[in-house]
Amino acid sequence: MNVAILGYGVVGSGVETIISEQLGDKEPIKVVKIWNRPNKTKQIPYFVSDIEEIINDPSIECVVEALNGIHPAYEHIMACLKKGKHVVSANKAVVAAFFEEFQQVAHDNQVYFKYEASVGGGIPWIKELKRAKRTDAISSISGILNGTSNYILSTMAKAHLSFSDVLLDAQELGYAEADPSADIDGFDILNKLIISSYVAFEARVKPDDFLRLSMRGVTLEDSQYFHNLGYELKYLGTANVENESLEGDVMLTACSKQSLEANTSLNYNCVSLVGETIGTLSFYGQGAGQLPTAHSMVQDLLDITNESHQIKLNSVKDISNKGLKTYQFVVRSQQSIPESFVKREDQGYCYLLPMSQLRFKEVVMPLLEETDLVVKMEELRGECGD
Amino acid sequence: MNVAILGYGVVGSGVETIISEQLGDKEPIKVVKIWNRPNKTKQIPYFVSDIEEIINDPSIECVVEALNGIHPAYEHIMACLKKGKHVVSANKAVVAAFFEEFQQVAHDNQVYFKYEASVGGGIPWIKELKRAKRTDAISSISGILNGTSNYILSTMAKAHLSFSDVLLDAQELGYAEADPSADIDGFDILNKLIISSYVAFEARVKPDDFLRLSMRGVTLEDSQYFHNLGYELKYLGTANVENESLEGDVMLTACSKQSLEANTSLNYNCVSLVGETIGTLSFYGQGAGQLPTAHSMVQDLLDITNESHQIKLNSVKDISNKGLKTYQFVVRSQQSIPESFVKREDQGYCYLLPMSQLRFKEVVMPLLEETDLVVKMEELRGECGD
Question: Which DSSP letter does residue B326 get?
Fold first, then answer.
């Protein structure tokens, strides 16, 4: 199978490396053209400057899309699918935004659109979610889905450094972008939850269905406070379906020290599904990085060369957040908080606010604006007598 | 696809339940006959008393083998394969003992022989090991592969109970067999490592290539001693390939509290591979139990109905243990131990013996006979200044 790669950054070059060095002649996969954005063209093998040379080349059967962001990734993916080429993408932003359109056009042209690397890096998450779904209704997906934010939190906890110091380090080391918003405000995790929800629930979910709270406000003191209580702060994404309602959120969460999530460090991801007969199934591996991400893309390529059955189109239903989920939050405040809310005091510093009777669309959001830190407190609920 | 089930115990009946209740008419899989050992035949649907009614029924395309032990499982599997029926097995003892023969006969008859449920229960371990191997050389497989021994160790640690008390409880609850040897002497883990080694390393390995040490000697004091040092005792299986030598072992291991293994409780399994480009990839889920194990068998059935390419036969090479691996052990002893071995004392109770210069086939085994507890101490090595 002749393959073209769009984008020769970290991931794109990793795909080329694995195909040439790991597969060798074992598999009939060959990179024949590589396109990159202008002025990033030096020392690229198989380089073509004009994307049309790929789109209009009938000998190219599959295109690996390793660009960032929506444009021009969207246009190139669509053009390739319409020309009857399989597409493998690692680009969560464009996959989350145009999931259904890509599936439809791929189906119309009887080609594969695959996106394993867009969620969980090297973890075979999408593959296993699809497999589990063959027998099980999936009720929940959740986990650590962003390596950068996890690197920041685990380094804060281990090295006793402030959020801003670790973020600066991470930016200097290239682990975090100059504009870190996608990673630390939860947009990246949100995209991964949207993609996973399409697969797990066959559901069309919108960003507004998720309660997304930034992790920018977290302090070293917060990290240490929860550590001393037996918890580690992690930036989790969750999507549950219950009674036809999708309850989803992205937020700092206090995870019991005995949980897999609390013990997932640095750029590792840990993501779990709950199925009817399988119960909880968790996957742990490198959620980012050149070779792990490229590995997932090459696995998609191998699946395309090995699978021979018809491309099916799953129906997708609308499912919205009916606001049925109740939350408990910890709010750090110097101000006084009504006594009925306070469950725990610690040298005038931390307050536990159980809001189990409040639904976030009605009441919680305004309250949150007064706070610096928000933590989902399901784990601590028992301890506080609720 | 018409399916027959051999064995209507916990797992066999689970397979029937999932096919009838979860798949329904979605998938073309139908249970048509069930065979069970004599005098366990009441209230079995589709029951046939004569196995020949299955073997000689050309309308049955696939047989689910959910028996225990080598005989008559071996004979029935061989007969079905030779009649051109796919076979799905959950029986690690027979799969480990006759892996190559089953693969060969399946290949000769161009049918599938699948065995996902034989290792790791509901975890898609075999599937993902095969996938990772398409691009990566696998250097290591390891983890918690036996639910019963893990239930015993985690209950000892959590409830502060002795080994024998927990074992008795487990036997009463049906978690452990009347003769618990397979679980607590490591034979079950060994079978799973042998099967995994065939897949991961394409290697023919023999039980003698593994250092297998029973966990019978473990005491509550041992569990608490390591807990206080920041470790949890787990009964791990490991197989590594380095320089064409297989280094494998089954033994109690002190796992850092921050490891996934230390946080794997009760009947859960946690198993990891290390690949060239993917790095460490870990899988966590229920390693035993009716529905998780049956789930894996039904996933194998679905793969058979969906896969349509030729049955390939992988070559298997001989690979033996050259005894290159060195170990460190902790030996609990009331007797005096030469000073050069002792690295840590604790109220005259525990001694740490670094044996990093000793190779187990030469020196370690005789030494071990004097001891009650053996723990692999790689994790603690740094702490002891080695």
Answer: B
The partner residues of A329 in beta bridges, in order of sequence, read A353, A376
Under an 8 A CB cutoff, do B285 and A281 touch?
Answer: yes
Nearest chain B residue to A117 by CA: give it: B278
- Residue A307 burial by CB count (10 A; 0-12/13-18/19+): exposed, middle or buried? middle
- CATH 3.40.50.720 is the classification of domain A2-120+295-306: yes
d(CA A195, CA A93): 10
- Which residue did the predictor score with more confidence, A252 or B161? B161
- Residues B157-169 have a mean pLDDT of 95
How far apart CA B138 and CA B92 sit, in angstroms, is: 22
Nearest CA in chain B to A15: B277
- Residues in a beta bridge with B326: B359
Q: Does the annotation count A192 as an active-site position?
A: yes
Catalytic residue among B192, B234, B343, B376: B192
Compare B333 and B150 and report the one with higher pLDDT: B150
Tokens of A256: 């019991």
| Interface contact B134-A294, CB threshold 8 A | no
Whether residues B298 and A135 touch (CB distance < 8 A) is answered with yes
Residues of chain A with pLDDT under 70: 39-42, 308-309, 324-329, 331-386
Q: How far apart are CA A226 and CA B63, in angstroms?
A: 52
Highest averaged pLDDT of the listed ranges A318-322, B167-171, B308-312:
B167-171
Domain at B125-286: CATH code = 3.30.360.10
For chain A, say whether B102 makes contact (Cβ under 8 Å): no
Task: In whole angstroms, give the CA distance from residue A142 to residue A145.
Answer: 8
Pairwise CB contact (< 8 Å): B278 & A291: yes
Residues 309-338 of A with CB under 8 A from B: 309
Domain ranges of chain A: 2-120+295-306, 125-286, 329-384
Those residues whose C-beta lies under 8 Å from the C-beta of residue A225, and which sit 6 or more positions away, are A346, A349, A350
Q: Which superfamily, per CATH, for B2-121+294-306?
A: NAD(P)-binding Rossmann-like Domain (3.40.50.720)
- Give contacts of A260 with chain B, Cβ < 8 Å: 260, 263, 284
Beta pairing, strands A268-275 & A138-144: antiparallel
**How confident is residue B30, by pLDDT bands cut at 50, 70 and 90?**
very high
Beta partners for residue B365, in sequence order: none
Whether residues A258 and B263 touch (CB distance < 8 A) is answered with: yes
Nearest to B295 among A135, A286, A295 (CB): A135
d(CA A55, CA A378): 50
- In chain A, whose CA is at the least distance from the CA of B129? A124
Is pLDDT at B258 greater than 70 in this prediction? yes
Judge whether residue B370 has pLDDT over 80: no
Smallest CA-to-CA distance from B130 within A303, A245, A294 is with: A303
